[in-house]
Each structure stands twice: as C-alpha cells, then as structure tokens.
Amino acid sequence: MLTLAVILGSLLFVGLAELLRPRRRREFPALQRRLGNIGFWVANLLLAGFVFGSPVAFRAQLQVLWGIALPAWPIADPWLGFITAFLVLDLLHYAVHRWQHAVPFLWRLHALHHSDPDVDVTTSVRHHPLEYLIAAGLYWMAALAFDIPASAVLTHAVAVFAAASVTHGNMRLPDRLERWLQPVVVTLDLHLVHHSMVNDQANSNFGAVFSVWDRLFGTYRRLPRAELDRLVFGVRELAPADALKPSLMIMTPWLLRRAAVERAIGSAA
Q: How confident is the model at residue 268 (pLDDT cuts 50, 70, 90)?
C-alpha cells in the first residue's frame, strides 16, 4: 500500500502542480499524447509482470533444484547492506542509461522517451516495451546474481519512479531548493537539460536519484534557468506530430533506422 501510495501520489502531486502553475506553454494537444504515454506504462507493467518472476524465488530454484551455487550478499549489517545495495542499484541505473545513449540499437529504443515534444509528468513513464524489458531484465539479473536485498530493490524502484515524476514535471522548483539539492540528487532543472534536442546537452545528467555519478564520471551539466526555458524537446530525426500518435510511437526504433539509412544514402550520393 505504501508503494502504491508513493507511485500514485507522486503522479497526482506533479500533475496538480502542472495544472495550477505550468512552467511552459504546451506546443501540441495534450490528451492523445498523455493517454499514449500512460498506455505504454500500463502495457509495460503487465508485460514485465508476465516475463519476470521473483528473483528470490528463482534464485532458490537454481540452488535447490539445479544445484547452482550463487554468491550471497556480502554485507550482513541490515542498514549498511541496504544503503550499499541502494547505491549499487543507482549506479547500475546510471550505467544502463548511458548505454541507452551510446549503443545505437538501445538508443533507437530509448528515443521514444526523448521524442516527447512537450515534457510533463507522463513523459516519465513513456518507454518502449523492448527498452523496458531489457532494462528490467538487467536489474532483475543483478538482483538474482548478487542476492541484492529485496527491500533495497523495491525502495530504489519506488525512489526512481517518484524522482522521475518530479524531474519530468512541467513546473518549477524553488531556485533555492534546486541549488541545495543539485550537489547530491537529480533535480528538475538538471534533468530538463537531458531532454534537450541538442546532442551535447542530451548526453549529460544521466543519473536517476543521485547526481553524484554524473559529477564523478564527467557527465554533469547545469544551465541557467533562462536557457532552460528556451530548450526544445524531442529527437531531431522524428517529426513532433508523429511522436504524439501511439501507432507511430511504437514504431520509433524503425523510424529512426529508416532515417539513418536515408541519411547514409544521401551522404553517399
């Protein structure tokens, strides 16, 4: 119940803030785009629930039924183990996110998330089903292989969801709060940079909960608020109107592939 309350509460809180005091004026009709984003979220949850069972139960089967010995989580102290596991999962999330931008196949899947031309709270759940399954599978295998405590896995997942709801919101956080939080955690202003159509800006601020990974690995970037308010969101190769239609949203990887082939043919000619 607490998990459900945090998930729904974060969506409703940010949605209400967007309604009462939107940061940016919408450029495109909202209803179809938002329904499409939420529809992808529901479909992804159902798909992942069907594909992935409990890693704890599967680990027990490997050990008892098949005799495969896997290492146990090495930290016995509950609190230290929980904190370490949370940090490991957040670092893994950072690494996966960087791969999604660096590997062409993964980028074509992840591009659906970036193609939203009007970023708002529903953009946080806008992910291609294949991208969702690959990312979920990596976290699932990490939890299985390293015996990561289930409490840390659940808490991190909820924290990522709540953080994503806030960092995609069409709203403003107080400037003082932004400055206070940015050295440690990913804030709204930091993540908006990541949704820029400009490549150098989009390839920064990959963190989910903590911004320290971006600082540590040189991908941290801040922009003045005046510049943030002029950012253009989307993917350059995709027409914004196509990014609003669920029937074309699901085809994003193939639309990008076709655009790349056409660009290569044009360069050769």
A: low
Closest CA to 119 of 188, 215, 209, 47: 188
* Sign of the dihedral defined by the CA atoms of residues 85, 90, 94, 99, in that order: positive
Torsion over CA: 41, 45, 46, 52 (sign): positive
Query: Alpha-carbon distance 75 to 73, whole Å?
Result: 6
Q: What is the mean pLDDT of the chain?
A: 92
DSSP state of 123: G
3-class state of residue 211 by DSSP? coil
Amino acid identity, residue 32? Q
Strand partners, 196: 233
112 burial level (CB within 10 Å; 0-12, 13-18, 19+): buried
CA-to-CA distance for 269 and 257, rounded, in angstroms? 18
Average pLDDT over residues 245-250: 90
Q: Which of 202, 116, 205, 207 is nearest to 159 (CA)?
A: 207
Distance CA 187, CA 179 (A): 9
- Element containing residue 168 per DSSP (H, E): none
